[in-house]
Amino acid sequence: MDEFAIRLRGKRGNSRRPARLWKTLAVVGSGLTVVMTTLFTWHAVTYTQRDCGSEKVNATGREETRDYRPVSLHIPCPEFPTVVPLSHPLPDQIQHIINKLDSYLSEIVDENTSLPAISANIFHGDSVLWSGHYGSKISNVSRARPDDNTVYRIGSITKIFPVLLIYKLYESGVIDSVDDPLSKYAPDVKVKNPFTNENITLRQIAGQMSGLPREAPCVYHCTQTNSTEQLKLLKNRNLVVAPWATPSYSNLGYALLGRLLTENLLNKTFESWTRKEILDPLGMNNTGFEITSDVEKNMAFPYLKNAEKKPSRAPFAKLGWASPAGEMFSTINDLTKLGMMFTRPWTQKIFKASTIREMSLPIDISPDGRTIWGSPFEMLYSGGFVVRGKAGHIDAYEAFFTFEPRLQLGMNVFISAKGFLKSGVTGVCVLSRRFKPLHRVFSTQTHPTVTLETFEAIAQITVFQNFLRLHYVPPVSFSIKIRHIGLPLTFQASYYYKGISCLDKGSGILADIYFDIPRQDGLSQYFVVPGWNIRGKRIAFDPNYQARVLQREVIQSFFQQPYFLRQY
Q1: How many C-beta atoms lie closer than 10 Å to residue 7's C-beta?
Q2: What superkingdom does the record give (predicted)?
C-alpha cells in the first residue's frame, strides 16, 4: 500500500454531484418529451379521425392494434404521423401542459430577490407555440422582466458552431472530408496517442469520440495565449482514451476546431466567421461573443450569493483562446432560429438539407440504451423519440437547447442566476403523471466557478482488480481509477462513484496522469494530472500526519465542480 500527499491547485467549486447537471438536462429533455408525446397524440388522433373515421386509440394516442408480444427478434417499428399545423386555440392536451410549465417556472423564482431571470419557449413547425419569462434581469427590480430578446450567456451551446464550421468547409470544398485528420489542415497539431498510430479526425472531435483531454493546457485561463503556445504545450499530452472507443467530453477539441480551421484555412477568426456565415444569414442579431454596453441594455445578469446569502453580481468569465467551446451569448428568439434550421432544414439556404440531417445523427449509444452522443449533441431516447440537446453552463448561467426533428419541435430554457432557484422543487415532471418527481433538479452554485485556491489531502493508491485505485483519507463518496494506457509512466485517471450514469461517464471524467521516473527502489516519487491541476508526492506512512487543509467537503467539491460539472 502506497500513500501520497495530494496537492490540488485551485478550481475549487461547490459540493454538488456532477449528476445534478444531467438531472437538469434530463428534466428539460423529459419536458420536451412530454410535449412531443402530446403532439404525437394530437397528430395521431387527427389523422386517425381524418383517414379512418373515429377508430379508437389508447391513452398514449397509439393504435390499440399494435402488437407488443415478443416475437423472436422482430419488434414492431413505431409509426409517426405527418406533421401538420396546430389549430388555434391550441388543443386542450397541449394547452394543459403549457399551463403546467408556466406555473412551474413561476414558482421556482425566489420572491426575495426576484432571481433568477428565466426565459423559455417551445417552437413547432415554423412558429413559436409558447414563450414565458419570469423573475428579473436585475436583482430586486421587479420591473426588469426578461423578454424574447433578453440576452443570456449560453456556454457550451457555442460548440454547435465549430461543428457547423466543419460541415460548411466541407460543402465549400475547403476540406476534402469530415473524416480527414485534423493534422491534415493543422500540421502542428501533435498529441501523443498511446492506443493507435492514427491521427484523430474532424468527425471524431466533433462527435466527442476523439479521446482528447477535457481541457486545453490553459484550462479556463486562456485570454493571454494563442494557438502556437497551446499546440506547443499539447505536444506533451496524451489522449485519455482510444478514438472511437467511448465518448469523452472535450472543451479542448472544439477550441482546436474553431481556432485552427479558421486561422489556417481562412485566415479569419472563429468569431468573425461565425458572424458572417451563420449568425447574419439566420438573422441572429442578438447573438455573439463580446459583451458590450449595448448588449448589456437588455441582458439578464449573473448573480452569486455572497457571505450574507445576498445577490452579488458575478463577473463575466472570458475564455479567450478557448472561446469556441463556450463564450457566446444569445436570446431564446435567436436560438429558435437556429433550432428551426435543425427541425426544418429545407427552409434554410446556408447548408444542404442533407448536411443538417447528417449533423443531427447519433454517433454512439451508451450501455443504458437511452443516452446517445452526437456532434456535438447529447441525446436522450424516450418513447420512440430521440431528443437532441445541448446544455450550456458559464458564470451563473444555465442554458438548454433541445429539439426533435421528426416532429419539428424544440424547446429553449435560459436561466441567469441558477443559485437562486428555489431548492426542493420538482422538475418538469410535474407536467405529467408519467414522470416521477426529481427532487432539486436544478443545481445551486454559491461560489465562483474557478478560483486559484490550493489545498492538500492524503490519499492512498492501492491495487484493486485490474487497475490502481486512488481513494482519500478519510474516505469520501468517490474514488479515482488509474489504468496504464501503453506509454511508459503514462496512465488514465477516471473519476468514479457508485451509480454513475452513462451521461456522466462521457462528460469528460477522464484525465491523463504521469508518474515520475522510479528511483533505484523501483518506486516513483511524484505524479501529475495536468488536466485536473493535481500534483502528488509520495510520503512515508505516518498515522499522525495532518494535511494543511483536509476537509472532506473541499475534496468532494474539487471533483464535482468545475471539471466534472461545468461544461462552459
Answers
A1: 17
A2: Eukaryota
Chain CA centroid to CA 428, Å: 19
Q: Are 317 and 395 in contact (CB under 8 A)?
A: yes
d(C-alpha 525, C-alpha 537), whole Å: 6
Give the three cell numbers for residue 446: 454559491
Pick the closest to residue 202 from 169, 225, 233 (CA basis).
169
**pTM of the shown model:** 0.79
| 3-state SS class at 554 | helix
3-state SS, residue 399? strand
Residue 181 bridge partners (DSSP): 201
> H or E stretch including 31?
helix 19-52
Residue 157's Cβ-side half-sphere holds a number of Cα atoms within 13 Å equal to 35
Q: Closest Cα partner for 420 from 11, 140, 21, 30?
A: 140
Q: Between 40 and 80, whose confidence is greater?
A: 80
Contact residues for 272 (Cβ-Cβ < 8 A; gap 6+): none
Helical residues (DSSP H) of 398-542, grouped into ranges: 502-505
Is the N-terminal amide bond of 18 cis, ω within 30° of 0? no
Q: Please give the Cα distance from 48 to 35 (Å, whole number).
A: 20
Helices (H), 214-316: 227-234, 251-261, 270-274, 280-282, 293-296
Q: Is the pLDDT of residue 4 over 90?
A: no
CA separation for the pair 260, 257 (Å, rounded): 6
Between CA 529 and CA 559 the distance in angstroms is: 13
Quick: pLDDT tens for 164-181.
Answer: 999 999 999 999 999 999
How many other C-beta atoms lie within 10 A of the C-beta of residue 333? Answer: 21
Q: Work out the percent of the chain whose per-residue pLDDT is above 70.
A: 75
Looking at residue 405, its pLDDT comes to 92
What the block records as the C-alpha cell of 536 is 502528488
Residue 92: half-sphere exposure toward Cβ, Cα within 13 Å:
0
First CA to last CA distance, the chain: 38
Distances (CA, A) of 151 to 20, 201, 294, 400, 555: 25, 34, 11, 14, 35
In this predicted structure, the answer to whether residue 69 has a pLDDT above a threshold of 90 is no
**Per the structure block, which three cell numbers stand in for 10?**
485551485
Mean of pLDDT over the chain: 81
Query: What's the one-letter identity of residue 122?
Result: I
DSSP 8-class letter at 199: P
Dihedral through CA 41, CA 43, CA 46, CA 51, nearest 10?
A: -110
Cα 238 to Cα 491: distance, rounded to the nearest angstrom: 9
What are the grid coordinates assigned to 422, written together? 428555489
User: In degrees, to the nearest 5, what angle opens at C-alpha 61 toward C-alphas 56 and 66?
Assistant: 75
DSSP state of 185: T
Distance between CA 355 and CA 340 in Å, rounded? 14
Measured distance CA(532)–CA(297) in Å, rounded? 37
**Secondary structure class of 191 (helix, strand, coil):** coil
